[in-house]
Amino acid sequence: MNPISAMRILHICPAYPPSQGGAETHSARISQGLAARGHEVTVLTTDLSGPSFSSGAGLPAEEIIDGVRVRRLPSDGGAAGSLLRFWQELPGGYRSLVKAFGREGVEVISHKPHLPGLILRILGTQADVISVINWYWPLAYYAYLARQMKKFTLVGIPLLHLEEPWCSTSLFKRMLASCDAVIANTSYEADYVRQLGAVRAESIGVGIEPSEFLRLNSYDPRALYQLGGLPVVGYVGRLQPNKGVPTLIRAMRLVWTSRPDVRLVLAGPRITPDNEIIALMEGLSNAERERIVCIYDFPESHKRAIFDAFDVFAMPSMAESFGIAYLEAWMCGKPVIGARTNQVQCVIEDGVDGLLVKLGDAGETASALLELLADPKKRDEMGRRGRQKTESHFTWDKVTTKVERLYFDLIAKQ
Length: 414
What we know:
The protein has an eight-stranded mixed beta sheet, with helices on both faces. A six-stranded parallel beta sheet has the order 13-12-11-14-15-16, sandwiched between helices. It is built from 16 helices and 16 strands. The chain is globular and about 65 Å long. It has two domains: 8-207 and 395-412, Glycogen Phosphorylase B (Rossmann fold, 3-Layer(aba) Sandwich); 210-393, 3-Layer(aba) Sandwich (Rossmann fold). α7 links the parallel β9 and β10. With 414 residues, the protein is α/β, with parallel strands linked by helices. Helix content is 40%, strand content 17%. It has helices at residues 22-36, 78-89, 93-109, 118-124, 139-149, 170-177, 187-194, 221-224, 245-256, 275-282, 286-289, 303-308, 324-331, 362-373, 376-393, 396-412, and strands at 8-12, 40-46, 48-49, 55-56, 62-65, 68-73, 129-133, 154-157, 181-184, 200-203, 232-236, 263-268, 292-296, 312-315, 336-339, 354-357.
């Protein structure tokens, strides 16, 4: 039996809808799911928005969104943020901060958003459980500092990217070890956390909302972009190098040497173009450029139709903690191609619901694309198996149930 019928939950995250992104979706779905089950859920976040979270978006300081109380703090940190920046610029200020927080700690708090006042917010809360989501940003460090001052139930939902340096610092490892539990997206990440000490780590993953993939509207990318019955390779996400976009473009150039009929669709938010991607696009011939369709800033209601337009979904990324886009492609019955990283290998079953390729290898990626494009039966079977796996294990309702059980269990052990 659960020790209490309803919990007071505080979720802390760098950004929250209407800001868009995988981490923002993750934060919102869990928060809304728990609120719908009768728990009192508050989200502490910033006023940042947009793909780069570079400036305040003029969002309300407080509002209720789908039963969740959302409180947004100014990303400059207000008076506490000003004091921190002033102190850093004083003669000897940096040295004194290093003495107090260590070099790694000062490196973290030097990055925006500057929210040292978050520590007092955490110390003053009466929440039964505090969870910090998306540790790439400094907010998790402020929670770690608060935990040194006061005992409270702390859960980390770091959304680890273990191939990237920020996950492997000694400070980051201490932060993970300070949690009562860590929610990981894959079993590989959970094993990594357990190796740091007696830390409880649960592999829960991410989810999708099946009902959103039942909606159909008049939007038809194949008709709109004159794709007709041509074979289409698709990508959905931020157009950034760490998402594998350059590898995919290079792979398509190889595909086009034997299959010039294949089209590439790149769909995602419009952001400042990366120099590597700009150079690759400028190096394409006119004929190759005509085989690429870019769909920017599409509404969520168009996502199903975009995935439906693909024959194969490819995201050979090094930056995935899980890769929710794989689930979305599977829900539309599409096979997927991902990079053979430790995390993605826990998501895609090679040869069953998709194919794995060597990270950054355009030749191997091109071979995988050609293999699937040449075999409709294999594509359909992989897409079917992927959808079955997603519906069985990776819906937001199932993810929320696992999170709720973990929270209840931690409270019972207080």
